[in-house]
Design a protein that fits this description.
Blueprint (H helix, E strand, L loop, with lengths): L3 H6 L4 E3 L4 E3 L12 E2 H6 L7 E6 L4 H12 L3 E5 L11 H13 L3 E3 L3 E8 L2 E7 L7 E5 L1 E5 L2 E3 L2 H6 L11 H6 L14 E3 L1
Parallel strand pairs: 1-12, 3-10, 4-5, 4-10, 5-6
Antiparallel strand pairs: 2-11, 7-8, 8-9
């Protein structure tokens, strides 16, 4: 891991931050520590539960891949999404393969619904569900909650280095598109150019 002092010690002319991100579970009103992520399931770091709620607030492949893995491992699976229709980001051709799997394993799909919070109740979890359209307050009693809510950037290093940069992280998009050098100067005392 590179810290700001490590980067500055190299006396760079240019720094590009490409530190990625981590799964976002911070949207839950309560129970963030009780939920696991699609990354946990897909990596094998967390074993499948017996009765699993998969919350997909991303609409892409990750939640569906996790749900497929869980179903094939013998879990009873319900996919819950706030979307109006099933996984809008995967495309029509991909839909077919997931739909076949989910029908074969009796996966339940619930649309227009959000997971609001997760609480422990004995050896079970209780997910509280809400809606963007009504005052929905339903509960699901399950063994495991798997969430896919995108990623949060690991941007601490970028913000630590930003004040010491010439351009303060700014990109001249016209120059970028033209293949021309970046020449933005927002801090004449800066020691390097910085982008992420």
């Amino acid at each position: 891991y590179a810290e700001a002092n490590d980067v500055l010690g190299e006396q760079p002319d240019l720094v590009i931050i490409a530190t990625g991100g981590l799964p976002n579970t911070s949207f839950l009103q309560a129970g963030e520590d009780l939920a696991v992520t699609t990354w946990d399931i897909l990596s094998g770091e967390v074993a499948p539960g017996a009765d699993v709620l998969v919350y997909d607030d991303n609409g892409g492949h990750s939640a569906l891949q996790a749900a497929e893995l869980l179903a094939e491992a013998g879990s009873r699976v319900e996919i819950i999404t706030p979307e109006r229709f099933f996984a809008p980001e995967i495309g029509g051709l991909n839909h077919v393969a997931y739909a076949k799997c989910f029908q074969a394993y009796n996966v339940t799909i619930t649309l227009n619904t959000r997971v609001v919070s997760v609480n422990r109740d004995g050896n079970k979890l209780v997910a509280t569900l809400g809606s963007d359209y009504t005052e929905l307050n339903q509960k699901r009693r399950i063994d495991q909650v798997v969430v896919e809510h995108g990623t949060l950037p690991l941007d601490e290093l970028y913000f630590e280095l930003k004040p010491a940069s010439v351009n303060l992280g700014e990109v001249d998009y016209q120059a970028l598109l033209a293949g021309a050098p970046q020449s933005v100067v927002r801090n004449s005392d800066g020691a390097f150019r910085l982008w992420r």
